[in-house]
Amino acid sequence: MDASAGIPDLLARLGARLGPAGLVTDAADLAPYAIDWRRMFHGRPAAVARPGSTADVAAVVDLCRAAGVPIVPQGGHTGLAGAATPDASGRQIVLSLARMNAVRAVDPVGLTIEAEAGCILRQAKDAAEAAGRFLPVTLAAEGSAMIGGIVATNAGGLNVLRYGMTRGLVLGLEVVLPDGTVLDGLRALRKDNAGYDWKQLFIGAEGTLGIVTAAILRLVARPRHTATALLAVADPAAALRILHGAHDALGETIQAFELISRTSMDLVAEHAGLHSPLAGAAWSVLIEAGSSLLGLREAFESVLGAALESGDAVDGVLAESGQQAAGLWALREGVSEAEGRTGRSVKHDVSVPISAIPAFLDETARALAAGAPAARGNVFGHMGDGNIHYNVLVGPDDTTEAINAIVHGVVERFGGSISAEHGIGQYRVAELQRHRRPAELDLARRIKHAIDPQGLMNPGKVLPP
C-alpha cells in the first residue's frame, strides 16, 4: 500500500480524535521531532501524534494500521542510536508520549512506582524520594529521558553494577500492540510464574513490537550513607584487582566502578574546564558505595588503603562531602560532551566479560594502531559491569565503517556485545547483522513478523525492514 496516498485522510482522522493539542503538522513545529539528540539522523515525519491517554494511543495505532502508515514512537529524545527518529519519506507518524506524564502511584511498603510512559525520569525519582525510596536508574539525561523510552531501550546507566539494567526493575507493563490491542500487565508482583513473561519482549525492543504506555518499576531503600573516591591507577589490570578487592570488602554496597582514561580526563580539562585532582594519571577509577548501615566509611577506607598499599592505586582522593563527590562525578559525566567538541569521533558502546577488559583494551589499541594509526581511543565507562565506551577520535582519512570493523571485530573475538546499553536503533542495524548469529537474527525476525506482520512499528530500527 502507498501510505502517502492516504495521509491527508489519516491526518484528518487523527485530528478529530486527538484535538488541536494532540496533532502537530506545521513544518516548523515538526522540526524538533525530526532529528536525533546527536544530530546524526534527520527525518521528515508526516505529523506528530501526541496522545493524552492509553486509549488515545490505541486509537492512533489502529488508525495508522488501517491506513498502512508506519509509526515511530518517541519519548524524551535522548537516545544515542537514532531509534526515535523518523525517516525522510514524509510517510511516517511520530507518536510522542510526552503528554502521558503522570506518576500514577508510589507504594513505599511494596517498593514500587507506577508511571506513564511520558513521565520524565527525574520526576519519577523525585516522587520516589518524596516517599523515602529510591528509583535506581541513574542517567546523565534524567532531566529529559522518559520512562517509556527507558523501558523500550532497556537503559543502563551508572548504577547497573548494583541494581542491574532496567529490565530487572520492570515488574509490570502496559503496552499497545500494532493492531491497537491494549495489553494490561500492570501487576506489582515480585513473583509471577503464570506462563510466558511477555513483557520481556517489549523491554529493549525499541518500539519495534509495540508501544509502552505505562510501567510499574521496582524501588529500593535509599542508602543513608555514601562514599566516593577517585583513584589513580597505572593500567586497567590494576583497576580490575581493585574491583576484585572491593567486591570482597564491600559486597553489594558497591554502586559504581568507573574506568576513565587519561585521554578522557584531558578532554574534560580542555573543553569543560574541569581538572582532575589526580593530574597526569594514566588511568583513573571512580568508585562509589552506598549503604543504610553504619560502618560503610570505614570499610570503604580499608579498600582504598589496601589499593594504595599494594601499589594498584598510586594516588587517591576521598570525597569529604556531597559537593566534593559531585565534583568527582562531573569529571566522568563530562567526558561525552567534551568529546563532542573535539571534532569527529566514532562511538562504541560495547561490553565484554569483566575479567577480559584489560586484554580487550590492549588488543583493541594494537588493532587501531595497525589499522588506523591516525586515530586515538577515548576510553571510559562502567568497568564494574563490563560496559566500555571505546570511542575513537578519528583521523581525516578514517571511515566509520573501517573503525567499526576494527573495534567490533575485537569485541566479537572476546565474546562481547556491540551494544551494551544504548541499543541498536538505526545506527547499528548493519553492525548487528554482521555480528549476531544467523539463528538469533532469524528468531528476532520471526517474533517481529508474528507481532507486527505489516511491519508498521518503527520500521528500519533494530532489524532491516
TrEMBL record:
SUPFAM superfamilies, per the entry: FAD-binding/transporter-associated domain-like, FAD-linked oxidases, C-terminal domain
Gene Ontology molecular-function annotations: catalytic activity; FAD binding
The protein's required cofactors: FAD
Record carries keyword Ligase: no
Domain of life: Bacteria
FAD-binding PCMH-type domain span: 41-222
InterPro entries registered for this protein in UniProt: FAD-bd_oxidored_4_C (IPR004113), FAD-bd_PCMH (IPR016166), FAD-bd_PCMH-like_sf (IPR036318), FAD-bd_PCMH_sub1 (IPR016167), FAD-bd_PCMH_sub2 (IPR016169), FAD-linked_Oxase-like_C (IPR016164), FAD-oxidored/transferase_4 (IPR051264), Oxid_FAD_bind_N (IPR006094)
Record-linked PANTHER family: BLL6224 PROTEIN, D-2-HYDROXYGLUTARATE DEHYDROGENASE, MITOCHONDRIAL
Family: Belongs to the FAD-binding oxidoreductase/transferase type 4 family.
Protein name per its UniProtKB record: FAD-binding oxidoreductase
The species this protein was found in: Methylobacterium soli
